[in-house]
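JOB MANIFEST
job_type = single_chain_structure
chain_count = 1
residues = 426
[input]
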Amino acid sequence: MISSPKMAIWTESEGKRIHDPFYFHFRPKTDTKLIVKIDGPIIVGAGPSGLAVSACLKEEGVPSLILERSHCIASLWQLKTYDRLRLHLPKKFCELPLMPYPPGFPTYPTKQQFLAYLESYAKRFDIKPVFNQTVVSAEFEGSLWRVCTEEGTEYLCKWLVVATGENAEPVVPEMEGMEGFKGPVVHTSAYRSGDSYCGKKVLVVGCGNSGMEVCLDLCNHGAMPSIVVKEAVHVLPREMFGSSTFGISMCLLKWLPMQTVDRFLLIMARLMLGDTAPLGLERPHLGPMELKSVSGKTPVLDVGTLSRIKSGDIKVFPAIRKFMEKGAEFIDGRKEEFDAVVLATGYRSNVPSWLKEREFFSEKDGLPRRPFPNGWKGDHGLYSVGFTKRGLLGASMDATRIAHDIHQSWQVMAKQLIPPLSWSST
């Protein structure tokens, strides 16, 4: 039992863990602040990437501590995704290290099934993040990383793993007149289903996988959606010949040049989906795989939206010139009234807002400066996971590398008989 009033800021789960010397030792610095020294690495973020690193470290015998700003693991999936969401890729490409999906799961697990998998994953590897800890700064000082949270705790550690990912904050672009639009405007992070939009004209801004799927969901709930296609986009069938398009692509890339694979994909897309250009969906000059490799832009895997565009149930508009009180004007001169707007404008990294380091991570986009597969390791024990623009497969690859690298340093320290970090007088 914690009797000191100075420790009252700890939750019950935190209180149990701070008494475990295998994880860390502590002493209050002031009445309102704690300084906590960690023997192993600190992982910032309890999403799939952070869980994967923690599990791999545990398998290597290295303890770690996850700090999570929300009250749950995988907060993006739990709190900011729409109800009909499924994994866009087959489950075999979305497994975390060391644990496959249950045999009965479908090829494309639902949101609820994926979350159940993550909960089981955390339970299997006894991963217990410290929740409600928002990291506001992390800086390398001397030989340690100093990680400060909004809640008033400072953590010190030798290794820091940034696992907040590419999708930490919603992107809400500024568009002329949007503040004067009288209807509701929501980002997809706040959209759950089309239930409340039945009978309404809804403009979806953004034509990635989320934008396309939200349009389909709106159709299925009796809404009248339109989608803004600002730039060229590749739309591919989700499956070919009874197998996933992604899986076929990965297999072909083992044997054929990327441009050859792209030509094959575009031929098959034309045969299966037809010419998308007359629908307002121009294709980029680069092929889908090459574009993904160069820019990270993912092709849209069609789950039924295209047929609703062809039938006229979903209208396609070009970029918005400006919003009006009851609708929008587009760059081709058309004007249309809408009851609501859904912004499928994506997410961004928030790393530059709290990591005081500018060599490894770019200030511009918050991503590692070095492209995959070399963007997982920086200097002074700094690592990144979940920034590959290659989904869970890329994150799992980096998690394995990170755990192995930290384990090697951990072994060196053990051989040198360096004692566990302990409190020093301040």
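[summary]
Residues 1-30, 422-426 have pLDDT under 50 and may be disordered.
The longest helix spans residues 391-415.
exit_status = 0
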